[in-house]
Amino acid sequence: MAIEPFVIKDIRVEGLQRTEAGTIFTYLPVQAGDVMSDEKATQAIKSLYNTGIFKDVRIEADGDVLVVTVQERSAIAKIDFSGNKSFPSDKMTEGLKQIGISEGLIFDKSQLDRAEQEIKRQYLAQGKYGSTVKAIVSPLERNRVAVKFEIEEGVVAKIRDINIVGNHAYTTDDLRAEFLLTTPNWMSWWNKDDQYSKQKLTADLETLKSFYMNQGYLEFSIDSTQVSISTDKQDIYITVNVTEGEKYTISDVKLAGELQVPEEDLKPLIKIQKGDTFNRQLVTETSKAIGDRLGNEGYAFSNVNAIPEINKVDHTAAFTFFIDPGKRVYVRRINLTGNTRTRDNVLRREIRQLESAWYAGDKINRSKERLDRLQYFDSVDVETPAVPGTTDQVDVNINVTEKSTGSIQFGAGLSSSDGVVLGVTVNQPNFLGTGNRVSAQINTGKVNATYSLSYTDPYFTPDGISRGFDVYRRDVDTGSLNIGTYNSKSYGAGIRFGLPLSEKNFLSAGLAGDFTTVELSSDSPKQYLDFCGNAKGCSSDSLQLSASWTHDSRDNTLFPNKGVLQRLSAEVSLPILDLEYYKLEYKHTWFKDVTKTFTVMLNGELGYADSYGNKEYPFFKNFYVGGVNSVRGFDNSAIGPRDLDPGTGEDFAVGGTTRIVGNAEVFAPVPLIKDSSQFRLSAFVDAGNVYANNQSISLGELRYSTGVGVSWFSPFGPLKLVFAKALNEKEGDKTQTLQFQLGSQF
Prior knowledge:
alpha+beta, Ubiquitin-like (UB roll), 36 strands, 6 domains, 746 residues, 16-stranded antiparallel barrel, three-stranded mixed beta sheet
């Protein structure tokens, strides 16, 4: 209806139920005193429609009064769910809010249809193909509606068969073994690998293609894939049609392009050779290795393309690795963010890439590893964006997420050998953000009581020489152990230095004064009494010089998955005080991640000690074997030479001067626990023994054990729980089936 132009004296709004009249006035292009026209009426109607609040808008004139009549859209007053077991209602409500359906919002039928499809899609992703979702809308007073989603989840459909058609070189069972998806098996309840997923099938098809390509089938192709479901929507059948083609061999391998690096340095990186069977994985690894090598020389954006020349008659392929290094790039700045407590220089001294130097990928990766190993941060993220407006510069942006490094623990210890360990431990490896380590410990145990204070500056000099100080007192009471009885009280102080030889090799040396008082009893072994001149006590003071070499290439110091830890250490008492002895120890531990979840560990330890000059070797420096940290399944320190208690007639271990320990262990994550960085299961085999200085070494005397264990890095310290069985215990050996240790022992 056309509106004759008139001057608006007043504006009246009709039809509002929930919306304030002021909202209407905000969107109207006119106000009282303006001249109303058809053009402005059309503009007003369009503006009000665009708010999405109204489903009908009319504008009329009542004399010189402008009448705006509206009909509001319904608002959602309530959203309910029924039948949902797999997804909690609050999570579903949050998800619907993302697509515009929420209490208080305007009801939109098209969005409701979208919500039904989205909820059903979530159930389909779980493999519940028989699920149904129905939205019921109920009108309420004041132009509001209640929305209820009635859900029938159904059951999870299982994969009943995976059929591969066209394979001749390999059996269907061999190929199915490459798939993540499989038919129901005894572990499917945990792995969920019998539930169909389009994403998993796509990954499996790529794995199948890679398998053939790595076996030489250069022309392998997947022709089609069919996924069918039974009428009751509970069984899935997958059929994959393939063409294998012929197996190809490598006829030649060449390098071309701008090498930038001497060819003799690149040739060892080539992992395929003339006459080898074609292997796509090795071709890819070669391209990556060459690219990484160029990246270490500053060519951060290099491209290495493997170009094949295929001879379909002879079924051979010649590969040319064409190298396009691009421009050489240097690092403009290294930017640090996230370190609110830790000083910049603490991070920068760990960074091996230098500003204004050529980009080096290996140095950037090593910098990240070193920052991770500090254990100051939950995460370390490194990015290398190009500098805007340049083609030969990048920045290195390092963002860290700090974690609490200091700790105060009260009563944190318990072990099967030491009983209840009460004490206080104050530890701060990043003291005041300086990177210096300070710790103070007071630990009391039935066997060991220790009081110590230590300080370490890892960068005493700018080039990484560390310096540390230690002060301690240690009391030992062996009355509850199955070894020769004695009590000792030791106190001392020392200074130590560390020298990094390379990124993974470290030398350390120290000098400490130790003052020990030994108390014996009539039950003490004869050799103990002989050492003290048949007295019931003696003092043995020493000035100890120590040195060690460590090689550490582990990827993680808490739960390593790969790398090697080697340590060679020596301790000798200088011949200016009471004792004249030396001790040599060697440890070699190897870790290898055989799969993404399983890690193999092999460990070997050797120790040898003796006296020099005319003095006897101090018995309280003997080696011992047995317990949760050496050969599990045997009582703590119970393996090795034994002596007889003249009073009770019982025998006990006296330790020795030669020590041999070997461990083989497989680590795996704990089922049903997501945080594998804190928990690990293991199965192990241990071997070891100690020998007296007058006893020949016989490997036939080694003790063996096997068992399973769990490790947990708990808030109270590391926990070890072991269930072990001694395999060749001999008369006099003391065994333990269950062994545990909670809290750090000092």
